[in-house]
Structure formats: C-alpha cells, structure tokens
Write a structure and sequence with these properties.
The structure is a homodimer of 341-residue chains.
Chain A lengths: L5 E7 L2 E13 L5 E5 L5 E2 L6 H4 L1 H5 L2 H4 L4 H7 L7 H13 L17 H9 L12 H13 L13 H14 L8 E3 L5 E3 L1 E2 H13 L5 H16 L1 H4 L5 H8 L5 E5 L3 E6 L4 E7 L4 H15 L10 E4 L5 E7 L1 H15 L1
Antiparallel strand pairs in A: 1-2, 1-12, 2-3, 2-10, 4-7, 5-6, 8-9, 9-10, 11-12
Helix pairs in contact in A: 4-7, 4-10, 5-7, 13-14
C-alpha cells in the first residue's frame, strides 16, 4: 500500500506530536482530476458521506411526495444528526406519518453525537432510543420508500432487500463500477456500504452538485435534496458542526457531508467540481481540519466560519494546534491555479 | 520523517478501512535493543506514561511518609484515573491532609474519562471539578511535595517551579539527555512534559522495573511506587481499562501505563526489559491494541484478559475488527526468539 502524505499535523510546544496521513481528490463531472494528493485510486468506504445518494430513491419513487415530506424531512433523511430532541422528534414524526414508530427502525440506538444533546438526555434519566441514532432520518426515509412501493418493511436494512438494491443501483450506475460483495461492508447503522476509489467518490459528488449527465428526473431529485440540505442545515448535522455552519452561511455554493473513519465529501456547484478525502487512520479531527482547509481555499467566504483548532490544557493554556501540513498547503496552492487559472 | 510501519488495521467487511502506523521499542536497562519497530529515535512526548517518574520526588522527599500516604494515595499519584467518585474522593482526602481543598489544584476540570463515571456525574446534575481530572492525584502529590519542602504551592505546575525542576532532574538524569526547552511542551494538565526518543523512554521503564543502576534510595522509592500500583490497580486507571485489568491479574510481572496521543509504556521485571510505543496519529484504539499484542506475547498469562476488539453495528452485527498488522505480528515473532532464545 502506497504511503499517503501527511495532511494534518498536531503540535505540542515546539514539536509535531502526531500526524494524520490521507488522500484528497477534486474532480470534474467527467472525471478529470483538478487535484490529486495521495493514492486517490485506493477504495474507501464512503460511509455517511453518501447519504444524499442513499436518499435518491425516496424522492424518485414518489414516496417523499406521497408522505408529504418537505425540506425538513428530506434534510433529516440525508443527515448524520447530533441527536437533539428536534432531530429525534422529526424522525418520530416521519415514522408516525407512515403509521409506525421507532420500533420499525433497524439502525440501533446510540448516545446523541452532540455533547449538549448527550448531556441533556443523560440528565433526563432516559436511555438513548433509535430516534437518537444519527441515521434515524435516513432509516425513516428508507422505510417510507419500501412502504410506498408495497414492499415488506422487515429487513429493509439488509443488502438483499429492494431498498438497498435501489441504493446499490444508484451508486453502481453513477460510478460505473459493479460494487460487488468484495467491496461491501456494513455501516454502523447496519445498512450496506460499498467501497470505491476516492477519485470515483469525488466524481459522484461533482455530478451531484452540477447535475452533469443526469437524466431530467434524477436531476430534479438531486436539486430537491440539495435545496433541502441548504434550507435546513441544522437538520443535516447540528449546531457547531462544520457542514451545518458552512452550508447555513453559503447555501448553493458548497455541499459537504462527513462520514465515519475520516471521510469527507462534497462539491462546489459554481466551480463544477466534487471532492472526497479520507484520513488513513480514520480520525475526525484530521478530516475536519482538512476539509476546512480545502473549502476555505476554494470559497474564500468560508474563511473564519470555523475557528482555528487551538489545543488548550484543561486550565485554558494554549499548548498546541491542529494545522495543515506542508504537503496539503502546497497542493492547495496548486488548486488555486487549476480552478482560477 | 521516516514512515513507520502499520501496527494496527481496522477492517470493515472484506477490506481494511483504516490503518494506524507507529513505532515500538523494547530495550534492556543498559539500552540494548530487544525489539525495534519503526523509528525509535524520533522524540515523543511521554505524556501520562511517565507518572511513576513524576511521582518519585513525592517519595524521595519524604513527603509521602510525612503525610501518611499509603498504597492508595501513591497509586492515585501515578494514575490517569477514570473519574469515579472513589478517585475524586481520594484526591480530596489527600488535599484535606495538607489542609487544602480542590481549589489548590491547577490541573483544571474535565468530564470523567470513564463513561459510567461521566454518566453518573451528569445524572447528578453536577459539573466536573478538578478532582475528576484524571491527573488530580498526581497534582495532589506535587502539592504535597512542595508543602513538605517549604516551597510556595502557587504555580507548582509551572516549569520553573522547584516541583517541576525536580521532575526534570529525574527524567534528565535517568535519560542522560538535557531535555531543554526545545523539547518541552505542556501536558493537558498544564505541567511540563519533555519529548525524548522512544527507545530512551523504553530504557527508562527497563530501569524502573529492574532497578538496574539506581542508587539504593531511588530503588526503594521505585519499589514502593510499583508495589502501590500493583496493590491498587483500580486507582491507577479504572474498571475495564487495560492497565487496571492486566496489573490486577499479574501484579509484579507487568507494569504498564498509557499516555495521551497514542503512547503506552511499561516493563516486564522478570524479563528485565522496558517498552514504549507511540502511534503516529495519536489514536487510543491503536495504542490499546498494540500494547495488548505486546503484553500477551511476552506474558502468555495475559492472553484473554482483554477481549478481542470486534466492531459491531449499533444493532449488534459484527462489521469488522481492530487487529494487529502483519509488520507487528512479524516483529512479535522475532521478539519471542530474542527473549526466550
């Protein structure tokens, strides 16, 4: 396995204490490389970054219209939400509209991702339910699609269920790859996830944000999904999260979505490019740092939206920082020329 | 910077999803290499792994005797505890014995490291205090030393304070390195920490667990510290933590202590070797996996004490695992020969 360059450095005092390697691809809808740093052909699991694609059958099947899902419900179906009561209640509302409740979900329960949501839940003395799972909206949308199409809703999360076969068709069709069992793993919420080269993942997002080469019906579905996420950025993640903060400030100009294990992907409609990045070690602090470096370089208005990551001791003394490494800095300088020049 | 080998792999379905690189050194008290994997000359901050060394002045100054500190107090002074009430109350008790309370501490407050301790604290409606800081025992011990020696206790955490100068003398003396400001950073609890080559850190632990080359007084102090940690392993970390579990089962045979940013160090008295490892990306899941692979290879009785790290989806399906990488497996096979043959 080729060694990827260091993208992010974590300093302490005068030294670099830890490093995060990874790869970044920025490509056009036709697949032309605008930036390629590290091994962008290595297959990566997109994880939650592809929730917008997993949501396409909900729109294209007519299920979203049938159940009266608006921007809020569609945004939640594309979300890795932080488990606020607002998120959990909206997922419950989506299920209630189907005549179901949280027991129909197969995503499993976990503590809210957001620390304030987690503290509030613990303080209330309640245990987390499946509604607090960051994927509860996605799962409610999958169940809605099955129900609308007259399919059994039991086992909707299984790779052989029509719900997941449709997701497979979307991803396989857009990537041009077979996406067989040899690249299939289960996500934390138990639905299948297919690994694909990082550059291919970036291309999927280039097509998502430009609509390039998509048939009219799919283009309308994509537009509806993007509009929903840009209209309800608090539902896509939660307060303080980079994707929420950036998309609230710059709707229509940046679409971005993180995935577990150090994945981040998205696109820039006005530049006509998509991107995908993966941190080799799967660390969120590194993917969060790398994506903001990329976003700020391509869209200067994003600068300052997320604070520089200073590391402080527990008594508040600055002890280090999380910063972009020289290889990433140099690549971003080349990117300027590629996009502008 | 030379690239270190992959020590730990994280799989999902049929693929390796994330990797953790790092270095491991196993050395004798004289500094002879028994195992060297990766760049063991690169300086690393030992972080909390060196708490036993930071505790030496507490014993050698006579402060521990003066204040009647027994195994429990000494173990807590060497701990990164999980913030259980038992831990917090013992730290408070140590301070009360000095006529002080938690406000004398300079470590800062953070949520208990242990999830059950954290939940219990949140449920009680209280905020974390400095007593819940995983370093509260170490800080109480540092304050005790200053008080016993008639030094001001204000600013005891500052690198220029006699308390920290003594720690510097211990580490500089044992390592034979100047440990100047060019390798000094502040730890999360605001006390200075000095980076040293990984192999040097391993040698410090070889001397700690064998007493080799130490003057009689220091040897007695070291013995007292190790006995305290082996007698009170729940105070050194907390239930379920690898160091607590292993040292409770195998006292006298293994001393081990983690540090932040993927550091683990310790030693094996009967084999007469010390070890230190550092994960490049600073991830705990990787240092925990690597240290158990090493410990289980050197002391077979440790096998099975910590469960194999299976990754499960939130509904309980096995989706992957955290496993030792081929380079680490091969190195551990060579280690067998080196230690036994």
């Amino acid at each position: 396995m080729q060694s990827n360059p260091v993208l992010i450095e974590v300093t302490r005092g005068p030294l670099v204490e830890s490093v995060h390697k990874g790869a970044i691809a920025v490509v056009t809808p036709a697949g032309a490389s605008v930036l390629s740093l590290g091994d962008v052909q290595r297959p990566v699991f997109p994880r939650s970054s592809i929730k917008a694609f997993q949501c396409l059958p909900l729109i294209e099947s007519g299920a979203a219209d049938h159940y009266g899902f608006g921007d809020a419900e569609i945004a939640l179906a594309c979300a890795s939400h932080t488990g606020l009561e607002r998120h959990a209640q909206l997922a419950a509302h989506m299920l209630a509209g189907l005549g179901l409740d949280e027991h129909a979900l197969g995503c499993g329960a976990h503590m809210p991702l957001g620390s304030s949501a987690m503290k509030a839940l613990i303080r209330s003395g309640r245990e987390p339910s499946q509604l607090h799972n960051n994927c509860s909206g996605k799962h409610a949308g999958m169940i809605a699609t099955a129900l609308h199409l007259g399919e059994p809703i039991e086992g909707y999360f299984d790779a052989r269920h029509p719900v997941q076969r449709r997701v497979h068709e979307v991803l396989s069709g857009l990537s041009g790859l077979p996406l067989g069992d040899d690249v299939m793993g289960l996500d934390g919420c138990s639905v299948p996830n297919w690994a694909m080269p990082l550059a291919t993942l970036a291309r999927l997002f280039a097509r998502l944000v430009t609509g390039a080469g998509l048939p009219p019906e799919r283009r309308r579905a994509v537009d509806r999904i993007l509009k929903a996420c840009w209209s309800e950025p608090e539902l896509v993640a939660g307060p303080g999260r980079a994707d929420t903060v950036v998309m609230r400030k710059l709707p229509g100009r940046i679409y971005m979505k993180p995935g577990a294990e150090g994945v981040y992907a998205g696109g820039f409609p006005e530049h006509g490019v998509g991107f995908a990045l993966k941190i080799d070690d799967g660390t969120t602090r590194a993917s969060a740092g790398a994506v903001m470096a990329l976003v700020e370089r391509i869209v200067p208005e994003a600068r300052g939206l997320m604070a520089r990551k200073v590391l402080k001791s527990w008594r508040g003394i600055e002890v280090g920082e999380i910063r972009t490494a020289p290889a990433l800095e140099r690549a971003l300088e080349r990117l300027d020329t590629a996009l502008v020049g």
